[in-house]
Amino acid sequence: QALGEQRLSVHYQPQVNLITGRIIGAEALIRWTDPEFGAVSPAQFVPLAEESGYIVTLGAWVMEQAVREAAQWMRDGMPIVVSVNVSALEFRQADFVERLTRLLAVHQLPPTLLELELTETILLENPDQVIEKMAALQRHGVRFSLDDFGTGYSSLAYLRDLPLSQLKIDRSFVQAMVHDAKATAIVRTIVTMANNLGLGVIAEGVETAE
């Protein structure tokens, strides 16, 4: 009902290069503001959408909003890479690759300006099929980021086998760095490993100068 009554919206969280201070990308995030419930947290409704299967409809809507917005920014002379989270259920849809390439063509967005954020749970079923889909989209120019790295199975084989362009360090490590030497060591190790593999790194949850 919230989707049909236009109570959902897509907000964009900037991704900033810490050396230059420039915005280098933006992550699309879904938000729900309800007249009865107020601001409904994604932590509440996204798991329910995944459990019910409605995440496929929700994910497709967010993807279309993000692609349309990114195409408009490009036309306005501000091309920026937009990251969109894709759930395992959505990625497993048989027509996912075809639907996404058609969407990019309709809005005339270069695939290089789209990055899909995947979590490791996406690989638990039919990893070969997942890798095949990723490779097909990568051939078009779409980029991939492994989300919440360090909190799931974190198999190093994924870094070898998947066509990734970036790792996202989970916010729990980033926010613990200020007071936890082990968290700092983990973050430093992930950054070094990513650099050696030629991967970019995004740190989630950078909210203070420290």
Secondary structure elements and their pairing?
Blueprint: E1 8-16, E2 23-34, E3 38-40, H1 42-52, H2 55-75, E4 81-85, H3 88-91, H4 96-107, E5 114-118, H5 127-140, E6 143-149, H6 156-161, E7 166-169, H7 171-176, H8 181-196, E8 200-203
Helix pairs in contact: 2-4
Protein model, in words:
With 210 residues, the protein is an alpha/beta fold. The chain is built from eight helices and eight strands; from the N terminus they run βββααβααβαβαβααβ. A hairpin with a 6-residue loop joins β1 and β2 (23-34). The longest helix has 21 residues, at 55-75. It is globular. The chain starts with 7 loop residues before the first strand and ends in a 7-residue tail after the last strand.
